[in-house]
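User: Predict the structure for this protein chain, please.
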Amino acid sequence: MDLELQNGYHSGFSHLEDSDKRGKWRDIVLAYRTLGVVFGGLVTSPLYVYPSMNLESPTEEDYLGIYSIIFWTLTLIGVVKYVCIALNADDHGEGGTFALYSLLCRHTNIGILPSKRIGADLSHSNRLISSESQSRLGKFLEHSITARRIVLFIAMLGVCMLIGDGILTPAISVLSAMDGLRGPFPSVHKSAVEALSAVILIVLFLLQKFGTSRVSFLFSPIMGAWTFTTPIIGVYSFLRYYPGIFKTLSPHYIVSFFLRKGKTGWQLLGGTVLCITGAEAMFADLGHFNKRSIQIAFLFSIYPSLVLTYAGQTAYLIKHLDDHRDGFFKFVPDPVYWPMFIIATLAAIVASQSLISATFSVIKQSVVLDYFPRVKVVHTSQYKEGEVYSPETNYILMFLCVAVILGFGDGNSIGNAFGVVVILVMLITTILLTLVMIIIWRTPLILAGLYFVPFLILEGTYVSAVFTKFVEGGWLPFGVSVILASIMFGWYHGRQRKLEYEMTNKITLECLGDLLGRSDIQRVPGLCFFYSNIQDGLTPILGHYIQNMRSLHKVTIFTTLRYLLVAKVAPNERIIIRRFGLDGIYGCVVQYGYADSLAEEDDFVTQVINSLRTYIEMNSDRLSPLSISEEISQLEAAKSGGVVHVRGKTRFHIGKETRWFDRILLGFYEFLHSNCRSSLPTLAVPLQQRMEIGMLYEA
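Assistant: Here is the predicted structure, written as structure tokens:
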């Protein structure tokens, strides 16, 4: 008996050991894959950090101070803030500013409108509201509509800053890589480099519609080659030019730098902040990988690579004080110049692709969550849900990227613009993460303050420095981000007000039965598909329609289209039918995945009719007053009598009594709503069968 138990123990232990080994290898493989997706912007930053600084007659002490600032920025923001703290603040595995806001919404009632909480776990929500242990900050946010609006706008602004990153990263990365041509060929004019960079980006954007599946397997090897070759050159460089470079790890070099340079040193922070470009992607892309894989990749490859590369660059510049305008390619030894130029160009393209794909993903998520006006989103892969393409977004990005290159010209001006985006999104993350610490994690205020105050000082100092470059380029990404955030906020507010009205004024089955029982309401021949977004009740447009038309079709199917985060929905799960207990009235939910194309279905009506016929024949709950044969005959007769597809087209009535806040935002929402795509996907429905019913909602 003891021997059997011992054998069983060893067997179970070895099984756990094997499982741990498999988990570790999976994390290592994922860490390798993150190189081509997550860290493209961060690891290519040595291309443009030094060229972005306005250094005038720099000295050895200046470069030592700058390297000390770069090292501690990478350590404090990259390692301490993101790797050790922020990656723990996920929302069901998802990261980014939206995830932090979602986390706050799920644990406290800070939604702008009551409708935001419809369908939520009310018992859990009520428990949190009535809890005496709720923090004072949480109670303040719950009771202050102004504070809630500010928090929402801050979260949206953070998301839009990432989109601004998608404009500037391709521009500065490709332009900095192409600038390497001017080293061996000094006669190449700057305008030629700009034109070549613009052409590369135009080609890159035009290829987006084909997806990245066929070439994505090259992304990690390319970025791996860059990540592991640049530090080798860095080690060679500092051993040759300045072996004592790591004495600058002492913070007193930072203090002496600012004491010596004063205001000029503070303004140079606008360039050094670019060393942490792309660090937010570690948090934002958390949902595509996992926490451990990102931590492994950063701590064991990205962080050492950047520290050694910047050490080599700085050591070279100490011996060549005026070469900072080409701070990367100048320190590359001649024998490996062209291989490094090729790797740098490919790495810049991969970094650009990563940010472009991330922008498409952010737009798609925002549309699905109803935070952004509907734009066309195409899935370029049937196997990867995250691989999407948005034509409108793509061409706007292309125009802005090319305009940035041709308008700003050199990396210095683009760097001024880039710094605003880089540091503001990090400051927003710091603010939201502090709210999560206090409200959700219940971190003692002293410990939360030990996080918030140092990073507020660090990032606030950077913000003040980059805003001195506001008129020199910083206005562009900030303006684009504010415009996008305003669009998101206006759209979200309008959609939530509309949902609130519909849930308050929804038509119940009892009310529908009373309406149909009136003598002046006729049941006319035909089959009607009545589209609605409400699954718990019926849209108020139905009451508006019946009272004005004085009729309803013999067979009416209330249809809801439900998007699922899967590739394809199985045919037997595509259509869900239910009876409403009224003669000829049914409910239908059509589920589709991101790789399903409803426009390519053979016959949408036939599919629903067949599903409804099967439901009638197999369902034993006799809620219908008709027999099975009579019900099927009624269905066939209705189809023969003609099919019509009815959807509501609602608008807000903004009267004199409407509050000024709603007057502005709802008016803006109506403008956006009238210029965006239809909420219904293309169903291959003939135009002559479509009908739109207009209705005014009281604002």
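The chain has two domains: 38-117+133-492, 506-698.
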